[in-house]
Amino acid sequence: MPEISVIIPVYNQENFLCETLESVLGQQGVNSEVIVINDGSTDRSPEIIKKYEGKVIVVNQENKGVAEARNHGVRRARAGLVAFLDGDDRFLPGHLARAAEWTKDHPEAVLFYGDACVIDETGRRLYLQKSETAPSLEKLLLGNFVIASSVVARKTLFDQGNRFEPMQVAEDWDLWLRAISLGAFSRYPWTGVEYRKHGGSAIKTKTLLAEEMYAKALARAFAAHPELGESLKRKAQAHALSQSMVRFLAAGDKKEARARALRCLSEAPAMPDAWFGLFLTLFPDSLLRAAIKTRKQFLKWLT
Length: 303
What we know:
Blueprint lengths: L3 E7 L6 H9 L6 E8 L5 H6 L6 E5 L4 H11 L4 E4 L5 E2 L3 H11 L3 E5 L2 E4 L5 E5 L7 H5 L10 E3 L1 H4 L11 H9 L4 E4 L5 E4 L5 H4 L1 H18 L4 H22 L3 H14 L4 H9 L4 H18 L1
Parallel strand pairs: 1-2, 1-4, 2-3, 6-10, 7-11
Antiparallel strand pairs: 4-9, 5-11, 6-9, 7-8
Helix pairs in contact: 7-9, 9-10, 10-11, 10-12, 11-12
């Protein structure tokens, strides 16, 4: 029996899929199975997957979205641990073996995650995306610090009836918000994954949908935990609006960004990010693009 089942949902990722699969198949020191869910791809992804038959378990389904693709993979998984990797991301060498050992040393935890190196379309490293060192439900409500491709979870978490819900761009966060109430989260102290951001990333191309789904995830979480109170709820809603503001700024839509900044400040008048975002909307387009570029360069230098 494998120690870890790696679940890879794939939808039209022909440009990156070989790198993804090779990064998993090249892992050493751990017995793993690789389950590739072809979620109705219409590009060359099925041809690429076919080349790996015998090395990976292939599941073909109609296009139902990443949530159901992952759920399908979990149902097929035989190992006691499941790892998730998107079809355009990459594991770094030795990651799975270290993760398997880490889970043994932390039997109290149900989900494990870590930092991720953000890369672009070409695989060039941009910056290190740091994760929360002391996870809690309250902190998770203020923003999703768990990158899906960094996650290794115990299969028992899903045996309890938990699953990814079809909430598009927010399905990860929604599940983490439910899972953290069922058992401890553990952050492992190495960078195990390269997380790709590119023009096709759903969160970049579906900004309004992301805002709607994040609001839905928050509403579900606070409905399940009314004891958390109205103050934290307003703060969490402000943080979600701040994230939406940033996405609109990145897209160059100053009008929508300004609207989110003002809504954010109505919930949390002292939030520095919202004031800074509002200030940026006053810039001419050329200066705004320069500010965004400078921020990216600063993040790269910082990490």
